Automatic annotation (TrEMBL):
(6R)-5,10-methylene-5,6,7,8-tetrahydrofolate binds at residues 183, 282. Pathway: Pyrimidine metabolism; dTTP biosynthesis. This is Thymidylate synthase. DUMP binds at residues 22, 180-183, 191, 221-223. Its EC number is 2.1.1.45.
Amino acid sequence: MKQYLDLCQRIIDEGSWVSNERTGKRCLTLINADLEYQVGKNELPIITTRKSFYKAAIAELLGYIKGYDNAADFRALGTPTWNANANENEAWLNNPHRKGEDDMGRVYGVQGRAWAKPDGGSVDQLKKVVDNLSKGIDDRGEIISFYNPGEFHMGCLRPCMFQHQFSLLDGTLYLNSYQRSCDVPLGLNFNQIQVFAFLAIMAQITGNKAGVAYHKIVNAHIYEDQLELMENVQLKREPFPSPELRINPKIKSLKDLETWVTMDDFEVIGYQHHDPIQYPFSV
Ligand SMILES: Nc1nc(=O)c2c([nH]1)NC[C@@H]1CN(c3ccc(C(=O)N[C@@H](CCC(=O)O)C(=O)O)cc3)CN21
Ligand SMILES: O=c1ccn([C@H]2C[C@H](O)[C@@H](COP(=O)(O)O)O2)c(=O)[nH]1
């Protein structure tokens, strides 16, 4: 929690104002932040200085794992977070590739599970990584990349947290996640939980011990309409200790995640938090 609050304070103290054309808003912006999560010790990096809707964050991750491309499927899993990008962004609404209400196009999960090959067929990046790690193999390329510039025009948003690399060392699994752009008040609240949970889940289904997750953020920003709440409300609060994430131990394979796992299989134990804060969201 301290590293999150330090990043927020650093953006306020050292950030520069940048106008963002896509949203029409200004962002207080900092380049480069490195966060670390102790997954092996089960110290969940959940925000405690406001209430975090952590189930929505895990539902997003599960939707990517399942390869979803539709905001209605994300809603059914338990998160409304893709509604606005799928249905309220003018450029996407006018895009001829949009397949109708709730379609997100060829984003995250589609690239992770079915990256289109130029010579036909597709690549299931996640399955390859799971298969290797389950056999104790780390070929130094256990990478899942969502970043496919050749298909940006076919999706509602370019992926923000766009690459995950797993490493296996002495039976312990590590994760390096790379994020190009981060809405620190809203997005990072979710992204921290997702990086942590991704390593914890992958360790569990591949039969390895979880180690540390390293989360690199390049462009870390606070939108102009979020700044007052961050500076004068959230940063004035004292954090609580980190709670633990409990994952149903019956989850043993990628197939389990694809078929029967729901949000009921994830629980945060001992979550103490301050009141919710509703930050404005920029589409
Ligand atoms: N501007 C922006 N920021 C983001 O963080 C973001 C995007 N756009 N577009 C794609 C996804 C969608 N994400 C989102 C979208 C909404 C919330 C949000 O409104 N969170 C509320 C609670 C949501 C709930 O009730 O479940 C929050 O208070 O954290 C968070 C992340 C993260 N991403
Ligand atoms: O997982 C996510 C997804 C999105 N975001 C934020 C970061 C930016 O504020 C917007 C995306 O805008 P771009 O113009 O494409 O950078 O969404 C996030 O923080 N985490």
